[in-house]
Amino acid sequence: MSAKTDYYEQLGVPKGASDDEIKKGFRKMAKQYHPDANPNDKVAEEKFKEINEAYEVLSDPKKKATYDQYGHAAFGGNAGQSGYGGGFGGFGGGFGGGFGDMDDILSSFFGGGFGGNARRRNAPRRGANLQTHISISFEDAYFGIKKEITLPMMELCETCDGTGAKEGTHPESCRQCNGSGQERVEQQTMFGTMASVRTCSVCRGEGKIVRNPCTTCSGAGRVKRSKTFEVNIPRGIDSGQSIRLGGKGELGEKGGPPGDLLITVNVSNHSHFERRGSNIYLEIPVSIVQAALGDEITVPTMEGNEKYSLKAGTQPGTTAKLKGKGFPSVKNSKIFGDLVFVVDVKIPAELNERQKELLREFAKESGEDVKETKKGFFKRK
């Protein structure tokens, strides 16, 4: 008979490993060699037995201390003592010392077949988050606003107070699982008799059965109602950003906390302004005279008109900036972006004779020889 492999090597951990390291090593190796993951694989089956034997010893402080001092000889070549030939006797406790948490370990990656899901089903569960949208104007996004939003959501049934039972009655404890929400099942496997814990097939893990359902909620314990919330939309919010209302989502289960309500904001476009980040952009039309001679022009902002001195000789497409006249930061309403405007020099489409004469004189003074056309480009036939 070949020498037994060192237990620490079986679990892939160093000698003297901590309890957490041993448990993590067992999780990894058991997942790799579990019969469910390796059907009809005799090598994997034998390896799985060895891994369990190693964990049984190293997870028990007394056995581990003895093994560290004397090795395999301390157990006469068979540390299991639970008798692999006679079957596992159930992962929930058939191994003895140190295997009380076997269900938790294996259920984490084998779908809860050992009872993990059944226990989690009865644990408090947080309610689901709800998501919705709200549309606001460009001005509302700049100044901030309070809005009301109404949406349907599940609430506790007031008739039965959430029990699901008809008035004057109460839910009964499930006789199949004695109210635990779990039932123990034994079956014969290649290892012998395998015992597992699963969600109760009668109460579906609830632990209780409603014989006489509430007429209002049909036994669900919840009803759908429209609920209205006041939403404080902060200054500077942008399209696509969300507001979270903590605890305003779906109700929790088994005493768990409610979820949150997430409201995504859609901001409509403005007729003149365009937002880019925290800056506002727009075009300001000016005449050729204003651009040539300079002028004091009026620039609209979100909080009223501002005066701006346009320099003489301003060229079409020139950009200028009014600092601090953009959008406030949603995180700090005292910090503002800028308002950036582009000078759009407008050329008159039609001129009277006096205006034409003045332009001819201007061209002459400038040394230009202008050959006038009788019609505009787009009016030619």
Summarize the structure.
By secondary structure, this protein is α+β, with helices and mostly antiparallel strands. Helix content is 22%, strand content 26%. Residues 77-101 and 107-116 have low confidence and may be disordered.
Characterize the structure shown.
This protein has nine helices and 15 strands. The protein is α+β, with helices and mostly antiparallel strands and 381 residues long. Among the domains are: 7-110, Helix Hairpins (Orthogonal Bundle); 274-365, HSP40/DNAj peptide-binding domain (Sandwich), CATH 2.60.260. The strands form six sheets. The protein has a four-stranded mixed beta sheet. A hairpin with a 2-residue loop joins strand 4 and strand 5. The protein is elongated.
How many angstroms does the end-to-end distance come to? 108 Å
Strand content: 25-35%
CATH class of the domain at 7-110: Mainly Alpha
CATH superfamily of the domain at 7-110: DnaJ domain
Largest β sheet strand count, sense and barrel closure: 4 strands, mixed
The arrangement of helices and strands along the chain is: HHHHHHEHEEEEEEEEEEHEEEEH
Q: What is the CATH architecture assignment of the domain at 7-110?
A: Orthogonal Bundle
Low confidence ranges: 77-101, 107-116
Which structural class should the secondary elements be placed in? alpha+beta
The spatial strand order of the largest sheet comes to 10-11-15-14
Number of helices: 9
- Give the total of beta strands: 15
Q: Give the overall silhouette.
A: elongated
CATH topology of the domain at 7-110: Helix Hairpins
Mean pLDDT: 82
Q: Rg from C-alpha positions? A: 39 Å
What proportion of the residues is helical, as a percent range?
Answer: 10-25%
